[in-house]
Amino acid sequence: MKNNIILLSAILLSGLASAQIGVNSPDPKATLDITAKSSTGTSRAIDGLLIPRVDRQRAQNMTNIPVSTLIYVNDITTGTQSDIAVAIDYPGYYYFDGTLWIKLNPNISGIDQDNNIYNTDGTLDTNRLVEQNDKTLAFTGTAVNAFSVDGSTLSVDAANNRVGIGTLAPNSLFQVVGGEARIGGPSSQTGTLADPILRIHSNANKEGAGGALWFNENNTGYGYYLKHNTSGGTTNGKDGLSIGTKGNVSYNPARPGIFISDYQEIGFGTSTPQQIFHIDAARDNDIFKVPTADQQKNDVVMTKEGSMGIGITEPNESAILDLSTTDKGFLPPRLTTAQRDLIKTKTAGLMVYNITTNCLEFWNASKWVSTCAAVAPIVGTVSQLVCSNPVNSGTLTAGTAASITSKISYIGGNGGAHDGQTVSSTGVTGLTATLNPANFTNGDGELTYFITGTPSASGTAVFALFVGGKGCNLSIPVSAKAAVVSDILCGTPTNNGTLTGGVAASGVSSVISYTGGNGGAYEAQTVASTGVTGLTANLLKGNVNNGTGGFFTFTITGTPSSAGTANFAITIGGKSCTFSRTVNAPAGTVGNLNCGGTVLNGTLKNNTVVAPGVTLSIPYTGGNGGSYANQSIPSTGVPGLVATLVANNFNVGSGTLVYNITGTPLGEGTAYFDINIGGRSCPAVAVTVNVLQESDVNCAAGSNDVYPYPNVNTKYIRCITLSGGATYKYIYTCPTGSLYIPSAKKCVLQP
Q: Which neighbouring-strand residues pair with 311?
């Protein structure tokens, strides 16, 4: 202590004398000059300056700190790296800059703040390992190539939230450019991963959702796809996987090249396979529906039971092959007798068509059995064909589809068969004469040709016939073309005037538009109405426009039999349609309502829901057949009931109105309905509402009490339960002048 005092006194005296202090120096060169006792040599004596040593918590809690105060922080496990101690992150020297404790040597923590990866490129001298433990390592950025490894080997597009391999600018969420993306081993295919998995998962269980793989060529729309539909529906078909193309065939995952459903059904051209195997050759089946008969014509299926269907999607389970068609046949192998006999191994049931004998044959395990004559039929011949006097069943008109027959005579038939023929017309082209195969008669007879097609013009159609070894020219005249239109638009007529049931039409017409037109003529028409009868639509003859479209004007006459819809079926220019006119009902009236003849069908009871079928019938006379509207009439007297009449028409003459009674009567006695309809009225039509009986009352089990009588305050109900469990119910009426008071549970005389 004495030495300390002497040293302090010396320092103070020296400072007072020269304002400079020297330690171990008689001649200080600065305000404070500390000289080592032994600045050289091998002395083990300690020289140096000990700055105040504090932990981070002490430094953090100092106040009123002068600028340039120097400390040594020897413990950073205390306090927190915040406030004025935000930079204290490592033991060492710190000075106060007026705001924070600043590290005297920034490299004390091993970081060169003036030269680091944030502001300077560099090269690693050795391998580096970052141990994160439970800490995270995050990079943020806004650039397209915000983070990359070895150029385009790996690139992170922070601007668009994308990742690229082989590209610095990925154009999708994840893009691999060039080379191959592989799960499993290297190019030698001998990787250590035995069962690699690539999974595309969708959490959306709805139609049209699910993962997909696309294979595209360049930037065109052509390519291939593999698409998963996660739920069945009418747009994408069943739940399953579609494989198909896009480009040469329209992209449609509901009608893909191949489809596998969630039940392992396989479809070709359809995502709605009807069996375990289904080909829709025309890809025309409705989605998620059973195909129609026409759609099934090009379908092939195989059921899980082993039945195959062609032209049918539900083959008969008893058949291994079920063929269905309305316009084709079954064509077995066609062989000559010589070719048939060359078949080496024949199994019983083997079938061929023998073109030598023109017969279907089958092998019965020992010989060929023919289904017809064993020899070829006689070839039919005639001595002469006579085309000069044909008998035609109809006429031919230019531009109009033909469907007539023409009969010609022949002489000297031998009874043999002919194969028929099909002959195209000359002169007027566009027609075909068809003769079906048949047999000539022995002697003279007739041949019937079916004339079809559309004559190209007016004139004469000539058919060069040759059958039975003879020929002749059949000539049929073709008249000028009749009117032809593309379509008649019956659905959008322009209607003039109105129609009323029972009233003669006057000034009423309908203008029907048409499209197309060939300039041909049409005849006058008179079309009777259906639905509402009694009307006639009349069209004058004329010509349609040539290609521009136009309209037909029908004048409507007659007296409609009733209200409703009158329909007129018209056919003009090869097109048909039906246009309709609304016939209004006259206002309904009656001559008389028989108020005294009303009948209540069913019973009504106080506080009881009206049973279905309870009606009130009111006869009337003098009806005019006109219409009346819906009615709903509430009851009076006894409220709670409604009489309902459904809109309809009066009969012509007498009839009966039937009101349905519904609701719950809120009382007993007489309920009244005020009826007013058809220009007549029945005020206060009365119906009886019956009183409740003891059998209608429900008493709680074990009850012994009195209760209010429903809707009537002059009665009450008593329930009595005997010791044996039997319950008795009684209905009492209060004395005259008194009312039942529920709170008092008794009848009380009223003042």
A: none
Residue 574's CB: how many other CB atoms inside 10 A?
A: 18
Output DSSP code: residue 261: E
C-alpha 603/C-alpha 612 separation (Å) is 11
Burial of 286 (0-12, 13-18, 19+ CB in 10 A): middle
**Whole-number Å distance between alpha carbons of 239 and 204:** 12
Tokens of 350: 């083997």
| Count of CA atoms in the C-beta half-sphere (13 A) of 313 | 24
CA–CA gap between residue 356 and residue 377 (Å, rounded): 11
Q: Which residues contact 95 (CB under 8 A, 6 or more apart)?
A: 68, 69, 70, 71, 101, 102, 104
pLDDT tens-place string over residues 706-737:
999 999 999 999 999 988 888 889 999 999 99
Q: Which residues of 669-690 are buried (b: 16+ CB within 10 A; e: fewer)?
A: eebbbebebbebebeebebebe
Amino acid at 393: S
One-letter amino acid of 217: E
Q: Where does residue 717 rank: exposed (0-12), middle (13-18), buried (19+ CB within 10 A)?
A: buried
- CA atoms of 109 and 93, how far apart (whole Å): 12
Backbone angles phi and psi of 701, in degrees to 5 = -60, 130
**Angle, vertex CA 211, rays to CA 208 and CA 214, nearest 5:** 105
Sorted by sequence, the CB contacts under 8 Å of residue 156 that are 6+ apart come out as 139, 141, 145, 146, 147, 148, 162, 163, 164
CA-CA distance, 310 to 373, in Å (whole number)? 31
Tens-digit pLDDT profile for residues 64-84: 999 989 999 999 999 999 999
Beta bridge partners of 473: 464
* H or E element, residue 58: helix 56-61
CA dihedral 473, 476, 480, 482 (to 10 degrees): -130
What do you get for the CA distance between the two ends of the chain, in Å?
120
The tokens of 504 are what? 């003669």
Q: Report long-range pairs for 439-444 (Cβ below 8 Å, ≥24 apart).
A: 439/380, 439/415, 440/380, 440/381, 440/382, 440/410, 440/413, 440/414, 440/415, 440/416, 440/468, 441/413, 441/415, 442/413, 442/414, 442/415, 443/412, 443/413, 444/409, 444/410, 444/411, 444/412, 444/413
DSSP string for residues in 394-449? S-EETTS-EEEEEEEEEEEEES-EE--EEEE-EES-SEEEEE--EE--EEEEEEEE
HEC string for 474-535: EEEEEECCECCCCEEEEEEEEEECCEECCCCCCCEEEEEEEECCECCEECCEEEECEECCCE
Find residue 715's DSSP bridge partners.
733
Distance CA 742, CA 751 (A): 18
Report the C-alpha gap between 100 and 63 in whole angstroms.
11
Q: What is the per-residue burial (b if ≥16 Cβ within 10 Å, else e) of 51-82?
A: eeebbbbbbbeeeebeeebebebeebeebeee
H/E element, 6: helix 2-18
Say whether 243 sits in a helix, a strand or coil. strand
Element (H, E) at 149: strand 147-149
Q: What angle do CA 543, 546, 548 make, to 5 degrees?
A: 115
Is residue 24 scored above 70 in pLDDT? Answer: yes
Q: Please answer whether residues 525 and 572 qualify as being in contact, where contact means their C-beta atoms are separated by less than 8 angstroms.
A: yes
From CA 445, how far away is CA 673, in angstroms rounded? 84
Q: How confident is the model at residue 314 (pLDDT cuts 50, 70, 90)?
A: very high
Distance set, CA 650 to CA 642, 643, 654 (Å):
22, 18, 8
The set of residues, in sequence order, having a beta carbon less than 8 Å from that of 547 and lying 6+ positions away, is 516, 517, 518, 519
Reading the block at residue 133, the tokens are 């433990």
What is the tens place of the pLDDT at every residue in 388-420? 999 999 999 887 899 999 999 999 999 998 989
Whole-angstrom CA distances from 491 to 228, 494, 517, 522, 703 are 43, 10, 19, 21, 72
